[in-house]
Automatic annotation (TrEMBL):
This is 5-hydroxyisourate hydrolase. Keywords: Hydrolase, Purine metabolism. NCBIfam families: hdxy_isourate. InterPro entries: Hydroxyisourate_hydrolase, Thyroxine_BS, Transthyretin/HIU_hydrolase, Transthyretin/HIU_hydrolase_d, Transthyretin/HIU_hydrolase_sf, Transthyretin_CS. PROSITE patterns: TRANSTHYRETIN_1, TRANSTHYRETIN_2. Homotetramer. Pfam families: Transthyretin (PF00576). GO terms for biological process: purine nucleobase metabolic process.
Length: 117
């Protein structure tokens, strides 16, 4: 099925359009960058899945969301240093045949995530 993400800006009640995201593989001793992207108007990867079914492997991954950069670009006054800068979510894929959806709900001061469907 593959890997996907979706980010919602809970401060403004909108998708986090324009947020920068990086996907890393974290198996082994050195993380390996898989891709970098900017979320579309719906807060999703403009190319669809982050990894399709043939590319998703059993193992560990990290999604890194540029939360501070996103809110600064919107003109939100943030303290220095920011409370949240980069939000990193580490997760494991046990069944690469399944769909792994990793949503993020975020404001400048909080975030939550879960395994979505």
């Amino acid at each position: 099925m593959g890997l996907s993400t979706h980010v919602l800006d809970t401060m403004h009640g909108t998708p986090a359009a324009g947020m920068a995201v990086a996907l890393w593989a974290t198996d082994g001793t050195t993380p390996r960058l898989i891709k970098e992207l900017t979320l579309n108007a719906d807060g999703r990867n403009p190319d669809g899945l982050l990894l399709d079914a043939s590319s998703l492997q059993r193992g560990t991954y990290r999604l890194v969301f540029d939360v501070a950069g996103y809110f600064k670009a919107l003109g939100v006054a943030l303290p220095e240093p920011n409370f949240l800068g980069l939000v990193s979510l580490d997760f494991g894929v046990a069944d690469p045949a399944a769909h792994y959806h990793v949503p993020l709900l975020v404001s400048p001061w909080s975030y939550s995530t879960y395994r979505g469907s």
